[in-house]
Amino acid sequence: MAGASAADGGYTRDLGLLGSSGAKDGGAAQPQQLGAAQAPSARAGYIPLAADAQPALQHQTYDEASQKTVIDLDAQEGSGGDGAGAGAVGAAGAGGDAAGVADADGAGGAGGAAADLGNALDLRNTGTEKAADAIYSVKILADGERHELTTYEKTVAQLFAEQGIAFSELDRLNGAYFDGTINSDLYIEVVRVRQETAFEEKFIPAKTVYRDNAGMLRGTTKVVRQGAEGKKRLEYLVTFENGVVADKQLVEEEILAEPVSKIIEQGTSGIHSEEGGATFKFSKVLDVKCTAYTSSYEDTGKRPGDPGFGITATGLKAKKGVVAVDPSVIPLGSELYIDFIDESVPDYGYAIAGDTGGKIKGKKVDLYFDADRATLLEFGVKKAKVYILE
C-alpha cells in the first residue's frame, strides 16, 4: 500500500523513501486514490505540518499485522538523483534536541525542524492512532441504483454520510445495521420505507328480521318495514417498501350511517281440510305416536268409588276427546286435532290436552277411549299428526 505525499491541507500520508521535496525515488509525489479518484480527507492519524515545514529524509513501511507505520529516520537516498538531499539527518535526543543537518554544499541544516518532524512522526506509532487505515470494498443498492466503492470509513452511518446517502428513521437495511461496522465485500440494500394514511368507505348490509304473525296463514309473508344499508369509513395506515405496499393496518372505524333492518312478518296459522270439507286453522303440527287408555284400574290404578276415579290431571272428567300429553311439548288446555297417518283408520278428531301420565314423555299422546281392555290392546301404537289449533 505504498503511496506518495498528499500535503493538501497540511497533512501527509507518505509511505516510502521521501526527501524534502516530497518525491519518492526521484519521481513526482502523487496523492493516493480513494474509490472514484477521491483524495483522502483530513482524518485522525495524518500528521499536521507547519505551512513552511519540509519533511526530512525518511523511509516508512506499513506493518499490516499491527496496522502501524514503521519510520526509519536514518534512511539514506539511493544512487541517482541530483544529490540535493544527500545530507545526514540527526536523530532526536531524549531532551528533544537534535543534531544539525549538513547539506551537500556544506551549508548548515535545520536541525531543530528535523527534530520537530521526528517527534511528530513518533506520535504516529504510539498505538493510539493509525498512520494508515484499512480500505474496504462495499456494494450498495439504494433507490434503484447500484454503487460499488471503496472507503476508509468504519461504520455504515459514516459511509452513508461520506456518500451522501439519506437514511430516514423508517428506512431499513438488508445485509447490515446502520450503526454497524464495515467489512470488506459488504453488500447493503437500502429499503425505502414510507407510510401513508388511506381512507375507504364501505356499505354495511341491512339485516332481515322475521316475526311470527298468528293472524296470518302459514306460508304467507308481509314486509312491515323496508331495510336500508348503512355506511362506515375505515382509516388505514399503509406501509410502502420501495414503492410497494408491504402492510395495511386498520387504525379506526367510523360509522357514518347505521343500517336499518328489514322486518318481515310470516304467518304461523295453518288450515287443515278434513275429508268432509270442514277446515280449521292451526298454529303448529307435530308428528307423534299415539297409545290408548281408559279409566280402568289397569290404566289409572283406581277403582270406581276411589277418590279421583275418572278425573284427569286438569280436573276434567275422563271421556273421549280428553288426551294425556307431555306438558313440555303440548301445553295443557291446548285444543287439538288428531289425524292418523294410516288412512284406513278413522281420525281421532278434535281433542283437548287435559291429562298427563307417567309414561307420556316427549312426542307421545295417550288417547282416551270408552272401550274394554281387549279393544285397547288391539289399538296398539299408531302414528299421527297432532294439529295445535288456534
Q: Oligomerization state of this entry?
A: single chain
- Tally the structural domains: 4
* Beta-strand percent range: 35-45%
Give the CA-based shape.
Answer: rod-shaped
Helical stretch tally: 4
Low-confidence stretches: 1-60, 73-132
Mean pLDDT: 73
Biggest sheet strand order reads 16-20-17-19-18-21
By DSSP, the count of extended strands is 21
Helix content: under 10%
How far from one another are the termini? 109 Å
Give structural notes.
The chain has 390 residues and is mainly beta. Helices cover 8% and strands 38% of the residues. It has four helices and 21 strands. A hairpin with a 5-residue loop joins strand 15 and strand 16. The radius of gyration is 55 Å and the shape is rod-shaped. Mean pLDDT is 73; it is low at 1-60 and 73-132.
How is this fold's topology laid out?
Layout lengths: L10 E2 L3 E3 L28 E2 L9 E6 L4 E5 L38 H13 L12 E7 L2 E7 L4 H8 L8 E3 L11 E6 L1 E12 L3 E10 L3 E5 L4 E12 L2 E14 L4 E12 L5 E15 L3 H4 L21 E3 L10 E6 L8 E7 L8 E5 L4 H7 L2 E8 L1
Parallel strand pairs: 6-9, 11-15, 16-20, 17-19
Antiparallel strand pairs: 1-3, 2-4, 4-5, 6-7, 8-9, 10-13, 12-15, 13-14, 15-16, 16-21, 17-20, 18-19, 18-21
